[in-house]
Fold:
Amino acid sequence: MRARSTNRGVRSACGWPPAVACLIASLACTTAWSEVDLPRESRVPGGIAIIELGAAVEPPGEVFFGGHRAPVLPGPSGWVALIGIPLGTPPGPQSGKFVPAGEQEPRPLDFTVKSKQYAEQRLQVKNKRHVNPEQDDLERIDRERKRIDAALGTYTAGRVPELAMRPPVAGERSSSFGLRRFFNGEARNPHSGMDIAAAAGTPILAPSPGRVLDAGDFFFNGNTVFLDHGEGVVTLYCHLSRIDVKPGQEVAAGDVLGKVGATGRVTGAHLHWGIAVNRAMVDPALFLPPQ
Ligand SMILES: [Zn+2]
Structure:
């Protein structure tokens, strides 16, 4: 459990405030729709906005941001939307779309994104094709981009994600999420995940329950596993030396996904761990207990 339960007040057995618990006792307490742990909120590019949608009995509707459906979850004092904010989002006002259940017309869900200046990182990569790919590589990269987009854009309704996660490998977590990257001096996309240092061969454990969406060898990411946690929350694990799961497989928290390696565009063995929320890559540190 997280150390953030201080302001929850009096709870029913299922975690809902008593006023609503009496209405939903037979619903939420006996189904998966009881209160879930939420990640920490951080309304910055690469962060998460948590927006209250009221304490209705039934799920209140659908939420979209940037054309992708966002998780709607039972929080400590009612339903909330979790909106993943893409790294490229400019600071200032933003608006998601809330389509209430049974209605057609979306309502705006307004919030403000604060600025966050991520540092620069300059890396030397030995394989020059990983910086300036050749024609064959470009075709492969294009095919893989579609496959990656499909995996990261997966939205599974009704599968309630467990968002209080454990680190997938023990090891030193870098604060490398969001770094503006230069490979061999050339600007590339910002770093969209967390790197965890670990020796090659270290087992990688599922940080929370999920279903394996895809697994295979990718040009930049090396051997990669994608997990669907539900409601638009998808995690990925890159540069593995070995993959130990198959698409379609259900995994529990702590199940082995594969082993740490140095496949793809890397400077050495480590795990790259990414989390997508409504397709936006957000900082995995928001889902882990504070260090
Ligand atoms: Zn990385």
User: Anything to note?
Assistant: The helical segments are 18-24, 135-152.
